[in-house]
Amino acid sequence: MNTELTPTEPPQKGRSDLTSIASIGTGNMGTALIKGIMSADEKLDVRATTNSAASAKALAEELPSAAITSLEDDAGANRKAAAGADFVFLGVKPWMMADTVADLAPSLDANTVLVSMAAGVAIADLATLAPKNKIVRIMPNTPSAIGHGVIALAPSAEVDETTVDTLRTLLSGAGLVVALDETEIPAMTGISGSGVAYFFLLAETMIAAGVKMGLSEETAKQMVVATADGAGRLLSEKPDPSAQRQAVSSKGGTTLAGLQTFIDAGLFDIAEAAAQAAGNRSLEMEKENSQVING
Ligand SMILES: NC(=O)C1=CN([C@@H]2O[C@H](COP(=O)(O)OP(=O)(O)OC[C@H]3O[C@@H](n4cnc5c(N)ncnc54)[C@H](OP(=O)(O)O)[C@@H]3O)[C@@H](O)[C@H]2O)C=CC1
Ligand SMILES: O=C(O)[C@@H]1CCC=N1
To answer: Is the Cβ atom of 189 under 6 angstroms away from ligand 2?
Structure first.
């Protein structure tokens, strides 16, 4: 691990032909994304920052070939990591974006592209914070860590095709990349960025149900995890959820009895309301963060 990182001694010196990326704020999502990207391209020059030294230490184990620094060890860590990077991924919490980008912006190269993964921070507001840099807004999800994420990509109008292609190639190491208009990000968040958690919630409820019906927690968990894995793989190979559901359902059988319970409880409405709630919250956060950024 390179923990000493200064502008005069860039990490991976002599590798200027390689794409360099900096990850500013590398927690759950930043780590998942950078892990996915790095596993597909081991030659990348990667710098990553955290707030605390303890998080930097833990991150170094997850991303052994990256140069990791923390603000606790060096107040200039973000600026130094971002210096000269081709792409700077912004992975701090949405409400920290204003201070973090305002601190970084003066030391960024004009060619550096800022890639924000924050929910509820609009491109126009990021552009206010970093007026000389091009901005791409993305919305990833956590399976990016194992190359099975979904990453929505919304470039601002100034970002050229070549840059979008390079970023798309980088992100494709983390999963499926889908180019969207920024106005579509709330919907994507509602079904995928946040949506992955709905599947985890369903898994939790099914494990609890199995335990209530007499299985041990360990057995129930093992079965539900394997069932989710099998369902996901099958759906991926044959992407028609309705057909897959029907293939499980025998006339007068057990599955229809279970499915009817979901339908009677209003599952379609619940799923729609959940996606809407997440999407609406994304829009609300855009307004809140815009007020913070623009005063
Ligand atoms: N989690 C998810 O599934 C998704 C999250 N997002 C977005 O990703 C962003 C990060 O969320 P998430 O990963 O969950 O949050 P985490 O809290 O897990 O990660 C935040 C990271 O930022 C670091 N940090 C805090 N302050 C600073 C700072 N001033 N400079 C540099 N690093 C700092 C933290 O370090 P330390 O650990 O030391 O505090 C931590 O590494 C959010 O904007 C969120 O909207 C988008 C899609 C999905
Ligand atoms: O919960 C959040 O706000 C973030 C954005 C999408 C997933 N997690």
So the answer is: yes
The model's pLDDT over 224-256, given as tens digits with 9 standing for 90+, comes to 999 999 999 999 999 999 999 999 999 999 999
Assess whether the C-beta atom of 279 lies below 6 angstroms from ligand 2: no
d(CA 235, CA 228): 10
Outline where the chain has alpha helix (H). Answer: 28-40, 53-62, 77-82, 97-104, 123-129, 161-172, 185-188, 195-212, 217-237, 241-248, 254-264, 267-294
Query: Which residues belong to the annotated binding site?
Result: 24-29, 50, 78
Q: What's the CATH class of domain 195-274?
A: mainly alpha
Q: Kindly state if the Cβ of 32 falls inside 6 Å of ligand 2.
A: no
Q: For residue 136, what pLDDT band results from cuts at 50, 70 and 90? A: very high
Known binding-site residues for NADP(+) equal 24-29, 50
Residue 142 Cβ inside 6 Å of ligand 2? The answer reads no
Say how many Å lie between the CA of residue 97 and the centre of ligand 1.
Answer: 10
pLDDT in tens, 28-46: 999 999 999 998 888 899 9
Separation between Cα atoms, residue 132 and residue 153, nearest integer Å: 20
pLDDT on residue 194: 98
Closest CA to ligand 1's atom 5: 29
Token pair, residue 248, equals 């499980």
Q: Where, residue-wise, is CATH 3.40.50.720 in the chain?
A: 20-181
The tokens of 70 are what?
Answer: 């923390």
pLDDT score recorded for residue 18: 65
Could you tell me which CATH class the domain 20-181 is placed in?
Answer: alpha beta
Question: 194: Cβ below 6 Å to ligand 2?
Answer: yes
The boundaries of every CATH 1.10.3730.10 domain in the chain are 195-274
Q: Give the ipTM.
A: 0.99
